[in-house]
Amino acid sequence: MDGGHYGEDLFPPDRSGEAERIDYGALAYDAVSRARLAALGVGPGWRCLDVGAGTGTISRWLAEEAGADEVLALDRDPRFVRPAQDSRLRTMAADITDPALDPGRFDLVHCRFVLMHLPQHAEVLARLAGWVAPGGRLVVGDALDLTTAGSPHTAYRRAMEAMWRVLRDTIGTDITWMTDYPHILSRLGFADVGAEVVLPPLTVDAPITAFWRTTWLSMREALVSGGALTAGELDDALDYLSSPSLADLSPGMITAWGRRPGP
Predict the structure, then answer these.
(1) Which ranges of 219-258 would DSSP assign to H, the alpha helix?
(2) Which backbone phi and psi does 146 adopt, to 5 degrees?
(3) Phi, psi dihedrals of residue 126, rounded to the nearest 5°
(4) What would the DSSP string read from start to end of 27-77?
(5) CB 256: neighbour CB atoms within 10 A?
(6) Can you tell me the distance from the alpha carbon of 263 to that of 257, in angstroms, rounded to the nearest whole number?
(7) Plot region of 52 (φ>0 → left; ψ -120 to 50 → alpha; else → beta)
(8) The whole model's pTM is what?
(9) Among 138, 145, 149, 148, which residue's Cα sits nearest to residue 181?
(10) Complete edge-to-edge strand list for the sheet that includes strand 132-144
(11) Strand 106-112 to strand 132-144: parallel, antiparallel, or no bridges (unpaired)?
(12) Do the Cβ atoms of 185 and 260 come closer than 8 Å?
């Protein structure tokens, strides 16, 4: 069900270009995440945990620009986390689904594009909540597709729908519950709960367009061999992403946040 350790069969970490594919997603959304974290007051004096750190773009920003005292970048495979300019950033290789995992208590726990891939997301989210120190913040983000079903471009629509279906069948990805984030955080005892949705521009030269292109190419065999999509449909969809006629809305990201009551 996990598609080879949460998708490694679909996206092998050692495959050439995998770090770049992850970075395209970061380029599409990092400005949004940084703005939200800054608005919540992250800065000097904070201890921060970045869960599912990827290539470490948010972790490095927390250490180098936000000025947090300590940043822990946690990932199953933290090899892509490039070091910061000083020792305030450290990495930890760990499986977030391990119930024995306890990295400590933090003023910020940030988790982006992780929970959507975990069938046990409710249990993991509750565990993340437990790592937030009194007065600290929990910030979570995941994909939200509000746009694919309405696309008039058949190949694009079918490719995006096939991608979500293959991710669901192989990894367990579920993007149907994300609009409940504010209610979930409230039930977990957080105050000052808020949420926002961002749809990045889907233009030929946009990072999110490159992310979808490289993601579909990485998944090509799974998309075609399983019958979710024909090779011709996938090629048409890829051509569309590079075409001047590209005129669609990308799936976006929902970010939700809350404060644990306390000093």
Answers:
(1) 220-225, 231-241
(2) -105, 5
(3) -65, -35
(4) HHHHHHHHHHHHHTT--TT-EEEEES-TT-HHHHHHHHTS--SEEEEEESS
(5) 25
(6) 18
(7) left
(8) 0.93
(9) 138
(10) 89-93, 70-75, 47-51, 106-112, 132-144, 252-259, 191-198
(11) parallel
(12) no
Q: One-letter amino acid identity for 72?
A: L
Residue 69: exposed, middle, or buried by beta-carbon count in 10 A (0-12, 13-18, 19+)?
middle
| Neighbour-count burial of 241, counting CB atoms closer than 10 A to its CB (0-12 exposed, 13-18 middle, 19+ buried) | buried
Residue-wise pLDDT tens digits, 203-250 = 999 999 999 999 999 999 999 998 889 999 999 999 999 999 999 999
- What end-to-end distance do the CA atoms of the chain give, in Å? 42
State the Cα angle at 43 between 38 and 46, rounded to 5°: 125
**CATH numbers and ranges of domains, the chain:** 18-259 (3.40.50.150)
